[in-house]
Amino acid sequence: TIEALDTELKKATEIMQKHAEALYKAAQEGQKSEEAPQAEEKSADPDDKSKAEEGEVVS
């Protein structure tokens, strides 16, 4: 029935909201703890590539 489907939809929506909130919190915590390492990795990657390119050109 439509009522049963509506109930299932509401349950599913609540579950999805809980998962979304948990993922959002985990993402926030992850960003806080990984901000510095990520910044270092991002700045290090181009350096590594340019060093490798320079090394290839020199050799």
Structure, briefly:
Helices cover 97% and strands 0% of the residues. The protein is mostly helical.
Notable traits:
Molecular chaperone DnaK; rod-shaped; 59 residues; 97% helix; mainly alpha; single chain
Provide a descriptive summary of the structure in words:
It is a single chain. This protein has one helix and no strands. It is mainly α and 59 residues long. It has one domain. The protein is rod-shaped and about 50 Å long. The mean pLDDT is 75.
DSSP strand (E) fraction? under 5%
Order of SSEs:
H
- Give the count of structural domains: 1
Structural class: mainly alpha
Q: Describe the sheet with the most strands.
A: none
Distance between the first and last residues' Cα? 74 Å
- Estimate percent helicity: over 70%
Any chance you could write out the topology, listing elements then pairs?
Layout: H1 2-58
Organism: Candidatus Collierbacteria bacterium GW2011_GWF2_44_15
Region (Disordered): 23-59
Biased composition (Basic and acidic residues): 31-59
